[in-house]
Amino acid sequence: MPLYIDIHEQLPDGATAADVAHAHEADLAKQDAYGVKYVKYWVDEKEHKAFCLVEAPTADAAMRVHQEAHGLVANRIHEVVEGS
Predict the structure, then answer these.
(1) What is the pTM of this model?
(2) What range defines the domain where residue 43 resides?
(3) CATH assignment of the domain containing 40
(4) Total count of domains within the chain
(5) CA–CA separation, 38 and 27 (whole Å)
(6) How does pLDDT run across 17-48, given as a tens digit for each residue?
(7) How far is CA 57 from CA 17, 52, 63, 82, in A?
């Protein structure tokens, strides 16, 4: 299955790593409906950014999970290949 990383360029004002953790939990609850698996995420509180690693049949499927789970869709999504 394709692997993507999405980039949330600007988290909502005041958003914390804990807030992103709650959003990630919402993604996990919704992901099966789209055949998606959110693998890992990272937060940069200082820069107000978040990054999500996701296995998904399409980039659109990954974005739909975010939209339906919490409404915080990424600004960019890139298909990536895992390396060592």
Answers:
(1) 0.91
(2) 3-80
(3) 3.30.70.3090
(4) 1
(5) 7
(6) 999 999 999 999 999 999 999 999 999 999 99
(7) 27, 15, 11, 16
